[in-house]
Amino acid sequence: MVTGGAGYIGSHTALALAEAGYRPIVYDNLSHGHRWAVQWGPLIEGDLSDGEKLVATIREFDISAVLHFASFIFVGESMTDPGKYFANNVGGTLSLLEAVRTTGVKHLVFSSTAATYGMPEIVPITEDAPKEPINTYGDSKLMAEKLLYWYDQIFAIRSVALRYFNAAGADAEGRIGEAHDPETHLIPLILDAVAGRRSHIGVYGTDYPTPDGTAIRDYIHVSDLAEAHVKALEYLIAGGASTAVNLGTGTGYSVEEVIASVERITARPVPKRYEARRPGDPPSLVANADRGAKLLDWKPRQSDIDTIVRSAWHWHQSRAHG
Length: 322
Ligand SMILES: NC(=O)c1ccc[n+]([C@@H]2O[C@H](COP(=O)([O-])OP(=O)(O)OC[C@H]3O[C@@H](n4cnc5c(N)ncnc54)[C@H](O)[C@@H]3O)[C@@H](O)[C@H]2O)c1
Description:
This protein is an alpha/beta fold.
């Protein structure tokens, strides 16, 4: 069962699961997901808070494992409406864990985030680094990780929390891609600016202690993320212990480098405007990706920046008329 499987990363993972021979059952309330993104198995329309529906779905489809993507994802909104984030991301995960416990499912893969680390002191960031989130979104995911810990201790439900860095790109064949509303992610915003759907892209902060002064992030192709989920699932099925794993490449790109990549791929200039730093934006967030390589035998294959941007541009253009 793929909760949030009508969303961006969940739908790419449903595709990867289908290609690996599984049958993904998507459970999504379509609050932010899309019916068109569910192509590799049935869509059950339901909310995480509906424990009875979760139990009925798990029983009806004889679910053997859960991949849990469903959550709210907007950092800014999480600081103006924190209750919404704690209710859905923590309360929703608790409701799901209760359904999992009731039905005897033993394996769960969870979408966590680099936002659990807050402002890291040491970069690249290892999984054992201090976790001090600086927004309620990040803390809601950390609290969900805590729930996973206790449901493992008490009920032997094994889980892998995958802490994604910056998910980007789209399916290489253009079947699905990123379609958030509102869009807050850098690459689709730059592509909107290139395509004339936004006047410009704001570059927030040019005085960071980085080579070109703009902030550095670790971009990971969504199809690489999807593959890591299949590997994490198989790690659990093989008897692996509960753990948390960073999903990043170990290489960071600055905002200026991403813009340069978009200009290379689209052969168009990116209209940009330099702005002040935004509060709470760390200079650099880059994963130490060793644990994923060792434990899951996973390596990103499509995550060099030009490959990411090319797939995102292809998807962006195919949706140019809606
Ligand atoms: N996109 C990123 O860069 C990124 C980075 C780190 C972590 N994550 C995590 O990955 C997961 C997926 O992110 P995404 O970018 O695909 O987001 P998304 O918004 O595209 O997908 C989330 C899906 O969950 C569904 N959903 C939300 N609340 C629900 C509920 N109560 N019941 C049922 N369905 C519900 C939405 O309808 C949507 O389809 C999230 O948990 C997010 O926190 C994303």
